[in-house]
From TrEMBL, chains A, B:
SUPFAM superfamilies cross-referenced by the UniProt entry: Nudix, Winged helix' DNA-binding domain
GO molecular function: 8-oxo-7,8-dihydrodeoxyguanosine triphosphate pyrophosphatase activity
Protein name: 8-oxo-dGTP diphosphatase
Coiled-coil zones: none
Assigned keywords, A-Z: Hydrolase
Family designation: Belongs to the Nudix hydrolase family.
Domain Nudix hydrolase: 8-145
Keyword check for Ubl conjugation: no
Keyword Thylakoid: no
Gene3D superfamilies: Nucleoside Triphosphate Pyrophosphohydrolase, Winged helix-like DNA-binding domain superfamily/Winged helix DNA-binding domain
Length: 229, 229
DNA sequence: TCAAAAGTGTTAACTCTACACCCATGC
DNA sequence: GCATGGGTGTAGAGTTAACACTTTTGA
């Protein structure tokens, strides 16, 4: 049994949002220091001593992008630890997924000279993201898709009150497919505790006003939503 | 941006097996050194410098339990990094899930004075497992159940050639529920590429001989197997 | 001949998809 | 009125759970 080798651990956050003009976007920051200074990367940084891993992810997201919502639902995507993935030495990254409302304003800070929302397709272009962050983003997108199937994760993309159409647009953006509006309506309103009616309605352009809901207490959707219809 | 604090990283492996008398079991080792010397724990240990994380998990499993199958399918369960989880300091554990055939012989080695299969219910008893390994085991069991739904992971519990009943017993053990034999048969044999008939049959006690299959090339089951029926 | 396990057939219940249709609003 | 999006109704297709039934063996 050899003496253990210490290593460095970072947390990186894939923060997704569905934005009116650009569709599904992820938050990226421009790196303010080496390595990959000046390139775009996922917000993240080193875990502090005695800091829980999820708290580290929330802290780094806040420091580098100015995002600090009241409650952040963070899902572990996975650990990325290929030996040469970071030129600084052995750095293992723990990736996290979260979703933010489209209204979320971002601003570079700390070690990030800039922070911006990018359509995910842009970020997945070769050599756009530093390190192995494109791989992380791909895995996070897959996880997001699975979360939508059987959890209330989709509501995390939306403001406190939202319509069923708002929620459907989130699903369509993440799943990259259109859904039947009527069937979707029935399905999500039929899950006990998923959506809590507010009694209020909202008018958006033309058409009948839509009922406003808030997220209910249910966190799982059973049976899962399917990606057809 | 404070100077990064190095930390220690371990890999821990939840190796599951469905055993004739004990049902669903996990592999545990008796710790040969402090902390928790003499207690049972999941096999695992420190990640070496320049060692990929999955390789570290496979290596530790081999060193501590004597298990070294030609191919090991390892699934990441998650990272566990509560600040006080290990008295040696800041140690983050990355947990992995794998499945082994019931025929797998184990023997303590390296830093483990003993290695044994335990029914999972035993290992989940309070204070049975060292560190936060009971939590890790619970999460790994949940992941195993999900893997069975939509992947070929179940075949990893079985020897190269197996019957549909063998596979069903795996599902019943992991899901903790009985399944209709006829419906299960139809479902799994109907998934294209999941099972490859060998043309041979095997007689087990009474009853009609069962056809032997090997795992096919398909890794996903769509639509997923459901836990009813 | 009986019991047991493997494997197939059958059907009623259920679910889902596709689309029709009504509702409530702005223009 | 008419277009548009919200929301409900519904029929046909497809799927599934439950269980009957046949097959093939050991005892």
């Amino acid at each position: 049994m050899p003496k253990p080798t210490p290593l460095l651990m970072t947390v990186d956050v894939v923060a997704l949002s569905v934005r009116p003009d650009d569709g599904l976007c992820a938050l990226a920051v421009r790196r303010g220091s080496e390595p990959h200074k000046g390139r775009w990367a996922l917000p993240g940084g080193f875990v502090d001593k005695d800091e829980p891993l999820d708290k580290a992810a929330a802290r780094e997201l806040g420091e580098e992008t100015g995002v600090s919502p009241r409650s952040l639902e963070l899902h572990q995507v996975g650990a990325y630890g290929a030996p040469k993935r970071d030129p600084r030495g052995r750095v293992v990254s723990l990736a996290w997924l979260t979703a933010l409302p489209a209204s979320t304003e971002v601003a570079g800070g700390d070690d990030a000279t800039d922070a911006r929302w990018f359509p995910v397709a842009d970020l997945l272009k070769p050599r756009k993201l530093a390190f192995d962050h494109a791989t992380i983003l791909k895995d996070a997108l897959a996880l997001a898709g699975r979360e939508l199937e059987d959890s209330s994760f989709g509501t995390r993309f939306l403001p406190r009150a939202f319509t069923v159409s708002d929620l459907r647009e989130v699903y369509e953006a993440v799943w990259e497919q259109e859904l039947d509006a009527g069937n979707f309506q029935r399905k999500v309103t039929g899950v006990p505790g998923l959506l809590k009616p507010t009694g209020r309605t909202v008018q958006r352009g033309r058409g009948r006003p839509a009922a406003l809901y808030t997220a209910g207490s249910a966190t799982t959707i059973s049976p899962p939503l399917t990606r057809v219809g």
